[in-house]
Please model this.
Amino acid sequence: MNMKGKQLTTSWGAPVGDNQHSITAGSRGPTLIQDVHLLEKLAHFNRERVPERVVHAKGAGAHGYFEVTNDVTAYTKADFLSEVGKKTPLFVRFSTVAGENGSADSVRDPRGFAIKFYTEEGNYDLVGNNTPVFFIRDAIKFPDFIHTQKRHPRTHLKDPIAVWDFWSLSPESLHQVTILMSDRGIPATYRHMHGFGSHTFKWVNNDGDGVWIKYHFKTEQGIKNLSEEVGTKIAGENPDHHTQDLFHAIEKGDYPAWKLYVQIMPLEDANTYRFDPFDVTKVWSQKDYPLIEVGRMVLNRNPENYFAEVEQATFSPGTLVPGIDVSPDKMLQGRLFAYHDAHRYRVGANHQALPINRAKNEVHNYQRDGQMRFDNNGGASIYYEPNSFQGPTESPENKQAPYTVSGVANSVGYDHQDHYTQAGDLYRLLSEEERIRLVKNIVDAMSPVENDEIKLRQIGHFYRADSEYGTRIAEGLGFQVPQKA
Model:
């Protein structure tokens, strides 16, 4: 980049005469408060860090495109999926979940897999993980769960007692815990892992007919994982390994790609399927609902500025477009509020107007003012609705499709309480070598827990999923399998 001839200026555009020496009274000083350039530099420096994300703080991002490869217009009227061959620009952010912004990439943790599609009808965010399920299924438990993944308020250390106490008292976590402790718990890179929408969403076509769907992004690079030992070694030698790998792969033209598939469930099946299809701790069998190809995602351009593009990128599952609606999934319902609210706190009320988040089509609404409003703030246009002055109005054809609800308003759980079948099925799919590594990872992770009651309670969950699974972990921890298990 040719920087010759560019003049250094202050933030208000005035030329800077000296950027190497502050203004002082004589050669020894003291420094004078009249050096407004110095004051501006120090004041801005103190404010360079915005609050980091509470979760998914450490991440990497890239630009790319999505190309439709299969006709799915029978299922959705979403414009960016409207014809085979159509390409839509996008931005992706990958991340770890629990660690801080300076933490290591190669830790055992789920990976965030967030995509912003810049469609012609507004932005669409698909905010998922590299796992098809999650630890909990009701958003009211999310703050408590994340507290267990963070630091103890007294020691300021990670606390395995809190982790396993919570999981042992939340048996719905068992399926995700099994995935996390398996080989897939530490992806080799961001390029060598699948991505999932995890939640159930609803697609609606031009006739108003709907289906329930689940998203699956299958990596074209193949699945590659790290052992616990290699992951720990890399964490010490190069904590930014995944970030570095993604950047250099794209920089040298080795563009990572994923094929997108969906599972499609008729609306009426939700009332009869053997698992609650809106429970994010469960998967749908691909034998029951096979994968249907949709398109291909390619990442082909690195950010020019990490802060402006990756750090200030904001994603929410509530960023929707016509043809894609939500489901009654209780975890998803909570995220619809929490994610937008997190961005208003972290980045600001006008975060959607930042270049990385701005829609490619024109935005027309009655939202005004707020900190850092850096466009013309709506100018002199009408600022309320309804109005008599041809201000923007709603388009009824784009209302979310209705669905029937019933029941008594009450604090209740899901009707289905089977937390063990799918976790056991997953264990039995593993090879003997994979089972050995899974059990070792769990035993190593639980060994620091100096509370036998917590260990025995968790062993009981493993045993209920599969008797061999529970027995191996019990033996690894020096316990007999509990009689009640």
